[in-house]
Prior knowledge:
4-stranded parallel sheet, 4 helices, 7 strands, 21% helix, Flavin_mOase-like, endoplasmic reticulum, FMO-like, microsome, EC 1.-.-.-
Amino acid sequence: MTRRVAVVGGGCSGLACIKCCLDEALEPVCFESSDDIGGLWRFKEDPESLRPSIYYSVIINSSKEMMCFSDFPIPAHFPNFMHNSLIMDYFRLYADNFHLTKHIRFNTKVLQVKQRSDFSKSGQWDVETENKDGKKERHIFDAVMICIGHHCDPNMPLQDFP
């Protein structure tokens, strides 16, 4: 029996988790609340409420050799310090190469994750989701990976910078 793993978030960590699950013959189901991969690295002119966004001109401050996935080098023709649009291009190449997007449910929020009543015996989790149409579903998983990053609550110190 294949063990099912919920992956919450389709940014760089979520993509890597989906790939690792597949490498271990697990069945990942990724829930991404937006309509695309990339998480924080996906620039949006008008960011959604409670979703962080980089600004248009962001260039990563780590070299491509240090920030790439270990099993998928960044293309040689990409610059050493990449603009955010190239980081998104790289994420898309990674996702396409390993066929990751077929495991992602876009526009699906995770409302709740909790241990099942028989968790001490089964080790399983109840996961409640909601799609963009408001339809709620309950799922059972053998494991859960939370990959939402640490920038999910925007920090806007407007009182310090009028």
